[in-house]
Amino acid sequence: QVQLVESGGGLVQPGGSLRLSCAATGFIIRLYYMRWYRQAPGKERELVASIPPGGWTTNYADSVKGRFTISRDNAENTVYLQMTRLKPEDTAVYYCKAEATFTGGSEYWGQGTQVTVSS
How far apart are the first and last CA of the chain? Predict the structure, then answer.
C-alpha cells in the first residue's frame, strides 16, 4: 500500500524547534522529488521546502529560509523538516508530497501533521 505518514507535529512555544518526519511505504522515495507544504486555517496550501532525489540542492519559501531545513534519508525512505526559531505564523497543518521524476509516475500526499506555535 502506497502511503506517506507524517509525524513530529505538536504544540511549541515561539522560538522553539520541531522536527517533522515523513515516512514512505509502498514506493521508493529515491525516485521522487520530495516536498513539504503547509496550510493554515483560511489560507491556501503553500510550498515550504523541496529536495530532489539526490538531495544535492534544496529550495525554501522566503518565509522559512534560514530557519527550516529539509533533508532526506533514501535508505530509510524518509524525508525530514527541521524547523527552528518557530513563529506563531508557522502554525499550520504540514503535508509531505512525493512527485515522481519518471514518465508516467504518480504523486502522493501524506495526511498531514498539525504544528501549533503559541505561548
Answer: 39
Q: Please report the pLDDT score of residue 32 as a whole number.
A: 96
pLDDT, mean of each 10-residue run, the chain (119 residues): 96 98 96 97 97 94 98 97 98 97 91 97
Q: What is the pLDDT of residue 102?
A: 86
Count of other CB atoms within 10 angstroms of residue 49: 23
Beta partners for residue 115, in sequence order: 10, 92
CB 6 within 8 A of CB 80: no
Q: How is residue 62 written as a grid cell?
A: 522566503
Q: Which of 96, 114, 113 is nearest to 27 (CA)?
A: 96
119/111 Cα distance (integer angstroms): 26
CA gyration radius, the chain: 14
Beta bridge partners of 92: 115
